[in-house]
Amino acid sequence: MEPLDKLKNDWKKNGGKYPKFSEKEIYAMLHKGSSSIVKWILIISILEFIFWIGLSFLMKDSQGSQRINNMHIDYITIPMTILSYGIIIYFAVVFYLNYKKINATDNAKTLMVNILKTRKAVSNYIFINLAYMMIGSLLILVLFFYYDPSLINALHQSEENGDTMKFYLVYFGLTILLLGVFIFIVWLLYKLIYGTLLKRLKRNYNELKKLDF
């Protein structure tokens, strides 16, 4: 619980026995809390970057990775990998700069502006990451039809049996379903982690609007 929230709860429980705090003191609490929240956003983005790198190393010998490697499409997969890491690094830098700005802010209006910028940056980060995952996965899916020998053979077999439409429906249907479940799970995690922090930032922003400097 934020210090300001604890103060309000204690104030209600004790019938206002505690001394009143000045607007500058309340601002200091909000400033400290906002700075802490943005710092956690930065830390989580760095941990996410480390997680995806670690996962890529763990999955490099998996069957799916081997199939992609055997297709010899490095000219596509390498730029995609660089782009995915670039997205995280770019926003990590943005979060760091926002943290520095909020940490150095000395007035309420500027702090409110920086809070809004941070919330917008986090929202953009979530949207761009999810969009990249979806587009990248669909691109790899299409490339399998052109370069994966086992899938090409299965497609030819279905054509000989007259089940081409069924093959496409099953393959694309299952793949899109699994992709949708994966994207939904990632979205839930983002919503849980980043969404919680964004709500706290929004609460601080609303408290700042009540102050009169």
Task: Describe what you observe in this structure.
Helix 2 (23-58) packs antiparallel against helix 4 (74-104), helix 4 (74-104) runs antiparallel to helix 5 and helix 5 packs antiparallel against helix 7. The chain has helices at residues 3-13, 23-58, 63-70, 74-104, 108-147, 149-160, 164-210. It has one domain. The radius of gyration is 24 Å and the shape is elongated. The chain is mainly alpha-helical. Helix content is 87%, strand content 0%. Keywords: Membrane, Transmembrane, Transmembrane helix. It comes from Flavobacterium arcticum. This is Beta-carotene 15,15'-monooxygenase.
SSE blueprint:
Elements: H1 3-13, H2 23-58, H3 63-70, H4 74-104, H5 108-147, H6 149-160, H7 164-210
Helix pairs in contact: 2-4, 2-5, 2-7, 4-5, 5-6, 5-7, 6-7
Organism: Flavobacterium arcticum
Keywords: Membrane, Transmembrane, Transmembrane helix
Transmembrane segments: 37-58, 78-99, 125-147, 167-190
In percent, how helical is the residue content?
over 70%
Count of individual beta strands: 0
Mean pLDDT: 83
Number of helices: 7
Distance between the first and last residues' Cα: 26 Å
Short description:
The protein has 213 residues and is mainly α.
Q: What are the defining features of this structure?
A:
213 residues; mainly alpha; 87% helix; transmembrane
